[in-house]
Write a structure and sequence with these properties.
single chain; 277 residues; alpha/beta; Rossmann fold; 8-stranded mixed β-sheet; 11 helices; globular
Length: 277
C-alpha cells in the first residue's frame, strides 16, 4: 500500500465488498472481526434517521458527520455528493432541493453505483442520478453545482489537493461546499497509519487539521468555516490490534488526536490568483 494506485485499489475493493454484502453482515474484517462499518459505527455513529429524505436501505453506516444538515441547500439547487455510496446523502439533499432541483452522486465503485441507482428507482426519484467516476477528476462540467457535499470520503483519497481543485472547478461562482471528514491534530502511530482496515475506516488516511484547512484556502475558497468539530475515540478493542499496552497508553494520552470536522467554504467571484483575495 505504498503508492496512490495501491491505496485507491484497496479502498475500491473494500467498499465494493460492503456494497455487495448483506447489510447486517460484517465486512472487510480485520483480525478481530471488526470491519469498515464496525469501525465507523463504534467511533463516529452520527444519526441520520430524523432527517427528511432518510432511507435506511441507503445508509451503510459509513459517514462521519451530517454535511447535508449544514449545507444550506435551497429549493432548485444543483447538488453534487462526492463519494455517494448507496445514496444516503443524495436522498437527504433531494429533500432539501426538491423536485425542481437536481442531485448528482459520484462514486468510483461500480457496486455502489448499482446499489444507489437501485435505491433511487425504488423511491421513484427522477432528479437524482449516480455517475461512476473518480472525485480527483469529476465526470461533470465546470460551474454547474450550487452546493457540493461529501461525507467521510476525502480522507480516503491520496491526492486531496486534486479533489479541492475539482470542487472549485465544478462549483458555480457563489456556490459553496459542506464536507464532513476526518483529520488529526497530532501524530498517528505508524502501525495505525499503515493498516489497511484503518485506512478504509477513514482514520489512517487523515491529514493534519491545519494542513487540511490550508489546502482549502490555497485552492481559492473564501469564508472557510468549521461547522462542527468532535473528537473520535478509538476503542481499546480496535487499538489492541495495532498497538501494545504501552503504545495504547501513549496514544490515549492525547485522546482527541483524531477528529471529525464539517467544513464550509465558498467559491467567490474573486479570482484566487488576483490581489483582491
Amino acid at each position: 500500500m505504498n503508492t496512490e494506485k495501491d491505496i485507491k485499489e484497496m479502498v475500491r475493493q473494500k467498499y465494493s465488498e460492503i456494497a455487495l454484502q448483506d447489510k447486517n453482515a460484517s465486512s472487510c474484517c480485520s483480525s478481530d472481526g471488526y470491519g469498515t462499518e464496525e469501525v465507523h459505527n463504534m467511533m463516529m455513529n452520527d444519526d441520520y434517521s430524523t432527517l427528511d429524505g432518510y432511507n435506511p436501505d441507503a445508509d451503510l453506516g459509513l459517514g462521519c458527520g451530517l454535511p447535508t444538515q449544514f449545507a444550506k441547500i435551497k429549493k432548485g439547487d444543483t447538488v453534487i455528493d462526492l463519494g455517494s455510496g448507496a445514496g444516503n446523502d443524495c436522498f437527504i439533499a433531494r429533500a432539501e432541493t426538491g423536485e425542481a432541483g437536481k442531485v448528482i452522486g459520484i462514486d468510483f465503485t461500480d457496486a455502489m453505483i448499482v446499489k444507489a441507482r437501485t435505491n433511487a428507482e425504488k423511491l421513484g426519484y427522477n432528479n437524482v442520478e449516480f455517475r461512476l467516476g473518480d472525485i480527483e477528476k469529476l465526470p461533470v462540467n465546470a460551474n454547474i453545482a450550487d452546493v457540493i457535499v461529501s461525507n467521510c470520503v476525502l480522507n480516503l483519497v491520496p491526492n486531496k489537493q486534486a479533489v479541492f481543485s475539482e470542487i472549485y472547478r465544478v462549483l458555480k461562482q457563489g456556490g459553496h461546499f459542506s464536507i464532513s471528514d476526518i483529520v488529526v491534530t497530532g501524530t498517528l502511530p505508524e502501525q495505525i497509519k499503515t493498516a489497511a482496515e484503518m485506512y478504509s475506516g477513514c482514520v489512517a488516511g487523515a491529514i493534519d487539521k491545519d494542513e487540511y484547512l490550508n489546502l482549502i484556502s490555497q485552492t481559492g475558497f473564501a469564508n472557510v468555516t468549521i461547522q462542527k468539530d468532535k473528537p473520535i475515540i478509538v476503542p481499546d478493542d480496535i487499538l489492541k490490534n495495532y498497538l501494545n499496552d504501552e503504545q495504547i497508553s501513549q496514544y490515549k494520552a492525547n485522546a482527541s488526536v483524531i477528529r471529525s470536522i464539517t467544513v464550509y467554504a465558498e467559491k467567490t467571484d474573486c479570482d484566487p490568483n488576483s490581489n483582491c483575495c
